[in-house]
Amino acid sequence: MTVTLADVAARAQVSPATVSRVLNGNYPVAAATRERVLRAVDDLDYVLNGPASALAAATSDLVGILVNDIADPFFGIMASAVQSEIGGPGGRAGGERLAVVCNTGGSPERELTYLTLLQRQRAAAVVLTGGAVEDAEHAAAVAGKLRRLADAGSRVVLCGRPPAPGTDAVALTFDNRGGGRRITEHLISLGHRRIGYIAGPQERTTTRHRLEGHREALAAHGVEDDPALTVHGRYDRRSGHDGTVELLRRDPSLTAVVAANDTVAIGACAALRGAGLRIPDDVSVAGFDDLPFSGDAVPALTTVRLPLYEAGARAGRVAMGKEEPPPGDVATVRGELVVRKSTGVPR
Amino acid sequence: MTVTLADVAARAQVSPATVSRVLNGNYPVAAATRERVLRAVDDLDYVLNGPASALAAATSDLVGILVNDIADPFFGIMASAVQSEIGGPGGRAGGERLAVVCNTGGSPERELTYLTLLQRQRAAAVVLTGGAVEDAEHAAAVAGKLRRLADAGSRVVLCGRPPAPGTDAVALTFDNRGGGRRITEHLISLGHRRIGYIAGPQERTTTRHRLEGHREALAAHGVEDDPALTVHGRYDRRSGHDGTVELLRRDPSLTAVVAANDTVAIGACAALRGAGLRIPDDVSVAGFDDLPFSGDAVPALTTVRLPLYEAGARAGRVAMGKEEPPPGDVATVRGELVVRKSTGVPR
DNA sequence: CTGTTAGCGCGTTCAA
DNA sequence: TTGAACGCGCTAACAG
User: What range does the record give for the signal peptide (chains A, B) (predicted)?
Assistant: First the structure.
């Protein structure tokens, strides 16, 4: 039915072992023989059987990339960067590796499910992107999975995610706290004192770190941290809209809104506009991440730029063993304040 | 080292076959025995060996999803929809299927490479999203790959892509031509006569179909189709910006711009604003797709809504055999005109 | 309902 | 430099 290695061997008049060797290029093979084999492969339209190969070699060409939301460019950009680094030569049997982007939807259970699936597939490497869920039990379960993946030979890299204690996974962490601090400092320096904050989901590390940075800035400049000025929601536009409506209800005198990320900020802008407020004349708005659309928003969004592509690419290289892990297996990636048109002096 | 099926069998005091049976749930097993096996699996922290399983069963739990650009929500939305339908029960060994999102970057070579990789992995199904490249040689190569995938037992579904002649792949096609016609008719009905068109890459089906719809509308209403009013570019913001600058240079009197998609439209808006023109007072702008940000743009974008999520979900179900393929294996998915604030009567 | 027996297709020793 | 033989871990008949 389907053509196998043996068929190729027969046609090239060599042994199956020889065919395997030319395909993997791991052993010396006479040039003439290799020619013959390659021709047979071509003639027969032979495609290596991945599972069989992986079984025999006890490793596969799969590289898993876990993302919270594949429809969100924040993750899409990192995923495409990781993927750009894992292709090319270096893989077994033909040189190409298969990037497997897994969409967890932010669900802890699905995260674990996918890690199991990748372990089952004997993935060559696994890259986890985005913040982690702050739940002791889940964190322990993830750590266990990561440890077992590593034991089985998979390289594990965290991208934009804090280190996982109890594992030796390499972590490229975003400096969310520092970014959060800088964006709020920017607003304070403009003269804002009543600053609303629309945070992400309560239990995520990214949410907490950005919020902590915000509070650090308030404290450092002696600005009151009114709990009523912080609301939580998801990392989407809707949350920005609804959160802003709520903040405005609680304190109509606020002069600035900091959003958990750019998508949330866009929703905030919509809500402010809906309330008849001008940006930044009446209320300033700040985001986080600097996604592609942020510069095109009207007004262009002041935000913290995270080098998503660069971080993803580095994670990919580390996962492939093409780059040394950072000292201590942890690197912090800073975000840069980008001041545009959505922030100004308070009215 | 790693625990195998045999280890589980030994601990549960049953044969390996029985363990396999409870794991796959394909054969009747006594409740007591199943209990015992499941406990042993748990005790030993056993994880099925995917490659071995796939080798023996001659099929895998992998489902491939090909996308042109994973960082583009257009594809992200479809991919997440496909993926939402392929999980759950029905897969082998534990019920979960692994969605493999493959990023071709729009490159024909990578498209072929990924198809080979998926064939190599004996993927259970493959979903190709987005337009096809219009190159006879490449089309033939893809058709050949798809045929071989189907022969090997993979189900092949095209989502938002025209049928592939010479294959029996199911196609859920977007009515790009009809959408293109409706958006331009909308502008004509508002009174526009000098309408610029920023098309996508020359050689893609999506580009051609949308453009043809545009021209049909012009012809149907006796509006001159000036070749100078059409420019080509990529499906990104930059192309929208640059294309608009060029169109403005060629004809400063144009009153409307139709963009290849919403992302391009956003770029067009930025360029118009940069030229000191108001939208829609001076120039109307229309997009295509209705991505999440389109309603939040300022002004909110008039566009053609494509039911990306629904189409992706349907493709996923068909790929899983959960839904019957449409009659003739081809279904056309219509886009709906969404009139918002970016279009108005010409100045 | 369960155990026994063969492979699935390939990589990798060990000899030659 | 090449071939022969074995086994990777699992599933799918076939018995019982």
Answer: none
Rounded to whole angstroms, the maximal C-alpha distance in chain B is 84
Q: What is the mean pLDDT of residues B71-78?
A: 95
Q: Taking CB atoms and an 8 Å cutoff, what residues of chain A touch B49?
A: 55, 120, 122
**Mean pLDDT of the region B239-264:** 97
| Domain positions in chain B | 1-57, 59-174+307-334, 176-306
CATH number belonging to domain B59-174+307-334: 3.40.50.2300
Best CA proximity match to A66, nearest among A2, A154, A125: A125
Task: Read off the pLDDT of residues B134-154 as tens digits, 9 standing for 90 and up.
Answer: 999 999 999 999 999 998 889
Q: What angle do CA A283, A284, A288 make, to 5 degrees?
A: 140
> With an 8 Å Cβ cutoff, are A55 and B55 in contact?
yes
Q: Which nucleotide minimizes the distance between its C1' and the CA of A57?
A: C11
pLDDT at A1: 64
Q: Which residues touch strand D (CB under 7 A)?
A: A 13-18, 21, 27-30, 32-33, 55-56, 58; B 1-2, 4-6, 16-17, 19-20, 23-24, 26, 48-49, 52-53, 55-57, 92-93
Selecting from A53, A100, A298 the residue whose C-beta is nearest the C-beta of B298 gives A298
Which of these CATH numbers, 3.40.50.2300, 2.60.40.10, 3.30.457.10, 3.40.228.10, describes B176-306?
A: 3.40.50.2300
Q: Rounded to a whole number, what is the distance in angstroms from the first to the last CA of chain A?
A: 76
Q: Which amino acid is at A90?
A: G
How many CB atoms lie under 10 A from the CB of residue B150? 15
Q: Which position has the higher pLDDT, A75 or B88?
A: A75
- Mean pLDDT lowest among A82-96, B56-70, B290-304: A82-96
